[in-house]
Predict the structure.
Amino acid sequence: MKRILWFIIGTAVGVYAVTRLKKRAQVLAPESLQQSAEKVASAIRHFGDEVRAGMAERETELRDALGIDTAPTEREDYR
């Protein structure tokens, strides 16, 4: 009876371990890493766009506050 119990416990642990390892292998697969990198790159681009928009808005506010009439020169987009 003891051997059957240990056999069942060992089988359950083995199935659990194999399942977890398969999931981990999927996460570390090249396609998954590519998708993760694309998400990070997209988030960084979005952050940069938001910062540039905020800078332009603040520059306009400062120009209005200082009474500078000249429009800011167009800057090259460095992306």
